[in-house]
Fold this protein.
Amino acid sequence: MSDTTPEQIDALARAAARAHEALLATDGAERAGWLRAVADSLDAAVDELVQLADQETALGETRLRGEVARTTGQLRLFGGVAEEGSYLEAVIDHADPAATPPRPDLRRILRPVGPVAVFAASNFPFAFSVAGGDTASALAVGCPVIVKAHPGHPLTSRRTADLVAGALQNAGAPEGTFALVEGYDAGLALVDHPAIAAVSFTGSVAGGRALHDRAAARPTPIPFFGELGSINPVVITRSADESRGDVLAQGLAGSFQLGAGQFCTKPGVVFVPRDSTVAEKLPSLVGQAPHRMLTESIAAGFHRGLEHLSQVPGVTVVAGAEAPDDSAAPVVVRADAATLAEHADTLFDEVFGPLTVLIDYDDEQQVTSALSNLGGSLTGTLHAEDGDDVGDLVAALERISGRVLFQGWPTGVAVTWSQHHGGPYPATTSQHTSVGATAVRRFLRPIAYQDAPASVLPAALREENPLGIPRRVDGVLQP
Amino acid sequence: MSDTTPEQIDALARAAARAHEALLATDGAERAGWLRAVADSLDAAVDELVQLADQETALGETRLRGEVARTTGQLRLFGGVAEEGSYLEAVIDHADPAATPPRPDLRRILRPVGPVAVFAASNFPFAFSVAGGDTASALAVGCPVIVKAHPGHPLTSRRTADLVAGALQNAGAPEGTFALVEGYDAGLALVDHPAIAAVSFTGSVAGGRALHDRAAARPTPIPFFGELGSINPVVITRSADESRGDVLAQGLAGSFQLGAGQFCTKPGVVFVPRDSTVAEKLPSLVGQAPHRMLTESIAAGFHRGLEHLSQVPGVTVVAGAEAPDDSAAPVVVRADAATLAEHADTLFDEVFGPLTVLIDYDDEQQVTSALSNLGGSLTGTLHAEDGDDVGDLVAALERISGRVLFQGWPTGVAVTWSQHHGGPYPATTSQHTSVGATAVRRFLRPIAYQDAPASVLPAALREENPLGIPRRVDGVLQP
């Protein structure tokens, strides 16, 4: 398959626009059925999918099998969200002729925005790719999806797309509900196309920012929901290091080397007290074997980032091995808080891959001060002991992160109602991303109906509540 | 008072950033008290405020007195929203060690984004100005506000700001919670300032789009919530015209001339069946007296827009009187659907002021086709009779509007939980605006807490629900 041509993009976008009209008449239960059909279809093909993806990404069978399960679980979760119906935010305020001025009958609901362009990520060939959270959340609420495939795993993308399209068709979804496109220019053409109503993206700061700016510069700007980059700082208090430094070193070693560090939630900077057990033990827990990276440009970025770091005066590489150009071996870099204060730009520059930066601090005020110079991050982690006075540290982590973890490691993102995978820029360019139930909110817009006859109201807003969904009526929540 | 200097902007933005930190520790009930104190203070000064505003805007005492009441009612409504607490979207998922992978305890809540820059509108010197919906909704959820005053009513703005600042201070709000700035450059400096976390705006397409682009182009982009322009199409079916054309002509005359047409919801284009009673009667219901417009540039825009319209072949001015440069007299312009199809750019270009365009149609397919060429609009209105087949018309209006009205007129926007004042671009640049309870959502960002000890959790997320707010626990809504 070659790159999708401009003519093909145009035809697919128009088909998606037609599908949007048809999808307006569907309800959550119907679409939940489609998502379950897609999930079943992917689960049934798991062996083939994992084999393809392992060839293309070298992420290993165990991880990839788990990722397929996560992906299909996510499709089912979003099906459940669509079915439950509170995502519609149905609100009814009955008329009040006695009010000044008299108040009309007013009913509000969220409706699908229209076709969504989804840019797949390289590092999750299933969960953040063709059938990932963006696709699942958009389809769940009735938005057609056109996925721009990531060039790092084209075969996996095409096979997944075939399965998704087949399952949707068999389940009765309108033609044009789903499509896959390939090629750099195809992605730009999608963002520019008048029929596209929103863009979602997971990837690098440079690529994401360019698309963000492009979406904002259209004659009709459209929202861009991007997850771009994240340092994921970890803070270890002195008492935590003293009481369980060994365990923490092991946990950190596992987290930053997981999947060759190719996670957006990889702990990139770890604040440790001076002369810590964690810093002492960590180098011995670091592997030597190089791991092939997802793409050549990711591998090149890793080597470039490591080179920049090692040129900073005061920075020492305390663990690391040579690796071929297309690979990376785990690396630990170490500096102190004074060096960080002077070279924050380099030390806080995300290196995607198995690398973490240890920062020795003398007092926690150095940590809170350093955190205030860090851009937004998906996560912030604190390891402390009962009795530690952590108020300032927690506040500093809350200020820059979307998820604050205690006694854990940021890799691993549970897919639940309460999850938030986002953070101040550049972690994300928006409040919501592809993980967690509120991901659907990105693809909805409100419509209020004033004094509408029941015959034209969406079912969710009819007096008798035929869908049985949670609503707010005359100001009161009715679950 | 002269324009706010760059140094003053910087000092105010820094003070707002400090206030943001202090506001994080406040709860909804506390802030509701502040908003009520502000509302009481404005109500107590209503005579003085109305007199000032009438001098500056010529909107008349009745309208302005009503607008103050609406403004203070809105402050109290947002206080109630803060107090009720569902806006926090508190979600708790308890740990599930038996899940694969084991699921941590995860709790999610919305937190204030930080200082908000509010650009006041000219046409509502109270409800969309210094103490309007943007200010009320931002303060309600704990975001400091810096208002950029509209130059159309500086005295009203300053006096209102004094009252707001005084009431907040007396009620115990932190220093830096509220400020007013003046001047074009001051507005730009606000949008650029690193401490500003979001911008809200009500005004013209040109001005709003420039600020939208500027907010998106910052090193750290911030969300821009703009309400820009709207045509507010109205469709009258043949049977509605036949059964109550006289009443409809009167309703339309009242709606488009209200406040000299200086409403973002003014009906700008009205589709009437050929040889309609509405078109026949409307000219006789149009006033002759010129009305001083809010600003000279609005008046100039009105005269320019009228000139452009009258130069279109096929367009007739069927009612209208001369008016001095700073004023406008009501105007009705008429064309048919074929002319509209050829000159949609001009005929669908919003003319802010007392002007409406009647479009004679022969069949409803001309109407749906014309609507599909219209950009987004705040409202779309249908006047039909029982038995009319309105499915296509309603669908066409839903596609382009944020509020669909039946048998009413779009001027007049009830402030309720169910209201939505927004629409596809250029009506708004975002899903939510300053009207309706969801206005608060613009100024919030999610944070998830993973395995957090109770001592660091926000009160809303503690197990015992000390605030007594609605939450979702383990997937189930608990109102």
Remarks:
- The mean pLDDT of chain B is 96.
- Chain B has two domains: 6-228+428-478, 234-406.
- The longest helix of chain B spans residues 61-84.
